[in-house]
Amino acid sequence: MKPYRFVIAASAFAMFAACSNVGNVDPSALIKSGQMATQAATLSDADVRALTDKSCAQLDGENKIAAANSKYQKRLNKIAAQLGDNINGTPVNYKVYMTKDVNAWAMANGCVRVYSGLMDMMNDNEVRGVVGHEMGHVALGHTKKAMQVAYATSAVRGAATSAGGLAGTLSGSQLGDFSEKLINAQFSQTQESAADDYSFDLQKKKNLDPSGLVTAFNKLAQLDGGKSSMFSSHPSSPERAQHIQQRIASNQ
């Protein structure tokens, strides 16, 4: 795999080379864009935390959050107690978004959000399996890489508009775009499989039943013929259910 800095730099160069009015772009803006792209590829843990804090706060402000005494938050609290209160030492904050959408995600700052539509569709064991999977993406560094890509995309877009006088920085509107890219990030087959195994291993370690992963995948496979936005990356949901079933059978 190519280092992120080279992929991002190449994308930025191609974008500007394609502009017919590139001669009108302020050279300092191009330099700034290159600096931002490099920064995106080398984000420190502190940068990641700051950006995810802002992103999570913005999304929380845009969504209806379940009340602390609601049946949804009580269910999630029960699941949270089983999974634990941290990811690699980072405290986890669990909340429910009241929406019919079927989704769940986690960010590198410990922000875990589960949609009520998913909770309506699944039992507690299945929700636990899904949340464990999302936590796996954080624990294994997948979300940080996805954030680098999302941030770099926003940086490049900002620099493209700098020809019109706008600063090539992550503005409020770009933060919204960045947040959407982050929660809808598509992971590779290897990353998805690794997150599945993380959830399985986490539940086994805590003496929990991991079979909810199997039935959760089977339910997701029924959504839109298996083409739902959640877990839409290859391998397919049936294949992933089979993999977990095999691990259960072998007790490994």
UniProtKB/TrEMBL annotation:
Residues covered by the Peptidase M48 domain: 73-247
Coiled coil: none
Gene3D superfamilies, per the entry: Metalloproteases ('zincins'), catalytic domain (3.30.2010.10)
Cofactor remark: Binds 1 zinc ion per subunit.
Record keywords, A-Z: Hydrolase, Metal-binding, Metalloprotease, Protease, Signal, Zinc
GO molecular function: metal ion binding; metalloendopeptidase activity
InterPro entries membership: Mito/Outer_Membr_Metalloprot (IPR051156), Peptidase_M48 (IPR001915)
Pfam families (alphabetical): Peptidase_M48
Entry keyword annotation includes Hydrolase: yes
Keyword Zinc appears in the UniProt entry: yes
Cofactor(s) for this UniProt protein: Zn(2+)
Domain of life the protein comes from: Bacteria
Signal sequence residues: 1-20
UniProt GO cellular component terms: membrane
BP GO terms, sorted: proteolysis involved in protein catabolic process
Family as reported in the entry's similarity comment: Belongs to the peptidase M48 family.
UniProt cross-references to PANTHER family, sorted A to Z: METALLOENDOPEPTIDASE OMA1, METALLOPROTEASE YCAL
Name of the protein in its database record: Putative metalloprotease
